[in-house]
Amino acid sequence: MTTRSTRSPRRRTVVALAVVLAVLGGFIVRLVDIQVVNAQEHIADSMMAFDGERPLYGTRGAIVDETGQSLAGSILLYDGVLDPKNITLYEQPTKTRKAGFVRTAEDGTASNVVWAQASAEIGAVTGQTAEEIQAIVAAAIADNPDTQFVYLKRGLTTEQYRALADLGIPYLSFDAHPARTYPDGAVAGNLVGYMGTEGTALGGLEQSQDSCLTASNGKITYQKGKDGVVIPGTERRVDAVDGGTLQLTINRDLQWYLQQLIAEQVQDLGALSGNITVVEVKTGKIRAAAEYPTVDPNDVPASDVNDRGSRIFTNWFEPGSTFKALTAATLIDAGGQTPTSTVTAPWRETFPNGARVGDSFQHPSNRYTLTGVLIDSSNVGISKFAERVDTQTRYDYLKKFGIGDGSPIDFYGQLKGDLPTPDRWDNQSFYNIAFGQGVTTTVPELAGAYQAIANDGLRIPLSLVESCTKPDGTVVTPEQPAPTQVVRPETAVAVQQMLENVALQSSLAKSVAVPGYNIADKTGTGEKTDGNGRYKAGIYFTTMIGFAPAEDPQYVVVVTLDEPTRIKSSGANASAWQKAMTQVLKTFRVMPSTVGPTLLPKFG
After folding, report:
1. 191 and 339 co-located in one domain
2. Cα four-point dihedral sign 442, 324, 576, 317
3. How many H helices and E strands in the chain?
4. pTM for this structure?
5. Which of 125, 152, 555, 560 suits a disulfide with 80, CB 3.0-4.6 Å?
6. What is the mean pLDDT of residues 562-588?
7. Looking at the structure, do residues 239 and 259 belong to the same domain, yes or no?
8. Which positions ≥6 away from 292 have C-beta within 8 Å?
9. 3-state SS string over 576-604?
10. 105 or 287, which is more confident?
11. Are 200 and 299 in a shared domain?
């Protein structure tokens, strides 16, 4: 017989079982809803809520000079990040704590720091007002109340980062990333180039050598909870790869000195611009390429847009009388002439084909030697000598000297000179090209031609980049064209001696003399066109180029000035050339001359 007492436990068991089954049924229904009915929506929500990624920045490679001194490098800057949601949570007091976060001082005392105080402390470091910082957070919350990320300020320095970190503010964090810096400012800025605000290479070697310098960023991926805490064991890392180190042939100290020198000369002579280029004779390496005006890569907007490149590589000009040395080398090598061969030359001449040529000064009809033509820089004299070699031969030699071919240096925006082909030589240009008119060249082309003369006729292609050292230690050197024997060694030596006599016997002899050294040089005063095929009156591009020691040339120095006004002839370049060559010989410890100069006659 079933009693009431026995029925009660059974009934309670049935009820309890029913409740359990009902709850379980509810869970099953909810599970089906989550995993089947609305599965895609919940998957998307979970991915948005939990997946995270943080970049690992690779460091852009350094640019260094020939001795390893830094011309460009990378430093760490920091982006300050605030967590608006956590700021809101900290500002809400609870039963167990006041508003704000707790800060413990060195003496152990604790205090609550509210958002108003924290924002003021932050602003004292970043240069922002407390109101500006609070507005940043308020705007982020208005856009998304649950946001946990807003930039406080980007590009904070290491000093600012340390000062902010010492505040111990829990909702302030930092993302570190590399930034470009140029420790010597404008030194070699014309060559090095600069970076854009988004890390894009925008000029100079930064741009043309970007494949060497650029880094590959990595990343860390992870999962985190809605509170922003990373879930342990979910991190995956792809390491960044740093850029390579680009070593230049430039000597930083010499570059600095020559930049100061050319800046002084340009300003003193009222020129538009100027440059000084130094080439090592035996190697073709450019040891300095100084310009004014130029750019400081640390402050690009401070310079005019036209001054942010390198006129050495991106400008061309008529070389004027510097070309007479190339014509003389052609005459000796292919025309049977010698330094003492002669012509009779008045100061003005009208040739049988109707061409007219004049010298820059009046003189009687002189019986010049070929050397004398270079000493007095006689246009008429070199024109008469030029008749002794045919057009095609002269053109071929100028091409062998590298005129019209630019340089093998990979430099963004580099130009080539314009050497007319023989079919474009008319009656006038046949003579004019002999003294550097009606033809354009560039500083690298002209420097390369004189390097060949100084190097006993062997032209070694110029170079500006020594190597690129990859992060794994692999050293990559640029491919260079093969050297070219332009003229016979004895021809080159003869021209070296002729240019030595120019330095000794020309009107600028005292201005260019370098005590203790035999030197060789030549000036050039190139006319400038007005863009309509006519030359500007009294406007010139002046050049002085030469080498030392004359008996064993080690360095070529080129000085150019664009439109000097206080002295309009190439005499304007003499002071800068003398000072530059003196510093070059001192920098590289070139021994003084131990033999006297080889004297050659001016007249026959």
Report:
1. no
2. negative
3. 20, 23
4. 0.84
5. 152
6. 96
7. no
8. 259, 262, 263, 266, 267, 273, 274, 275
9. HHHHHHHHHHHHCCCCCCCCCCCCCCCEC
10. 287
11. no
